[in-house]
Write a structure and sequence with these properties.
CATH architecture: Up-down Bundle
CATH topology: de novo design (two linked rop proteins)
CATH class: Mainly Alpha
Distance between the termini: 15 Å
Strand content: under 5%
Shape: elongated
Helix content: over 70%
Structural class: mainly alpha
Number of domains: 1
Order of helices and strands: HHHH
């Protein structure tokens, strides 16, 4: 299916859910984490849909693929920061489960998109 705008892409929409959930989760972090875990987690989360949008807007297949790979990398970064927050005692396993699973779904969908572009 051809999309006319990146906002129509289900993978971008799911990535925006990750952003919403990360911002909600990090609200409870202590102030001392504003520039550490909170900032890193939020930045990584925002870069997921941001790179999907930028990839969508690129005209060359190689550029598109690179931005989709950057987005996929950010899903791993979010997951790593969530685990770090859990290890530090800030988040429970239950609190991070949905975000973690959605990151995996976004990464899988990005893999499919890249595979399609390489076909």
């Amino acid at each position: 299916m051809a999309y006319h705008d990146f906002t129509e892409m289900p993978v971008w929409q799911l990535a925006m859910e990750i952003v919403k959930d990360v911002y909600s989760l990090t609200e409870k972090l202590p102030k001392r984490e504003d520039y550490a875990l909170c900032g890193q987690l939020r930045s990584a989360a925002v870069s997921i849909p941001g790179n999907i949008a930028e990839g969508f807007g690129r005209g060359h297949k190689k550029d598109k693929i690179n931005f989709y790979y950057y987005s996929r990398g950010s899903t791993c970064e979010v997951r790593s920061h969530l685990i770090a927050g859990q290890k530090a005692g800030y988040f429970s396993e239950e609190e991070i489960l949905l975000i973690n699973n959605n990151c995996k779904k976004v990464a899988e969908e990005l893999n499919r998109i890249v595979k399609g572009l390489n076909s």
